[in-house]
Amino acid sequence: MTSEKPRLGRPVATSHAQIEKAAFRLFAEHGFDGTTIAAIAAEAGIGRRTLFRYYQSKNDIPWGQFDRRLNDFRTILNDQPNDLPLHEAVHRSIVEFNQFPDNAAPTHRERMQIILTTPELQAHSVLRYTQWRAVIADYVAHRTGHSPDDLLPRAAGHISLALSMSAYEMWLKDPYAPLTPLLEEAMLNLQSYLRN
Question: How much is the CA Rg of the chain, to the nearest whole Å?
């Protein structure tokens, strides 16, 4: 019988959530621009190289596991009944996609406050918005028999994003406002564009 040798060094035990909590603590204290990757890694108790296994850059951290969330968004859209009017299917999916547990940390409000108000993140955010719009364009194209690059699906993605962003801007202005009713109200405007 052989005994296992103890592992040397500090064991790496972390997660996306732990890194995000550490980063948001530092963002609140030093601002986004004043927080370095090295500081986030140290706060999370990991090395820089380990952090980069979870996030490619500091700009990716506020977005969380966005690629996984986009896959969830595709699933939400594809689970809508085919006989549901297109505008309503997109409307319902966007509202569902934007629901988060109250105990999420960082909170969804903290996350969106940084994403929408940090100048250093704006160029990176454009890439994320493009990915989000593409999910809607793909769905609308599938439902209408268009190509995702055709005008209707592309415009549906842009309009949906604009409506969602308007709701988010109103939500961030009022710390007591619930997000869902604002999204519901904003998304009603889709009906005039995606009638089918």
Answer: 20
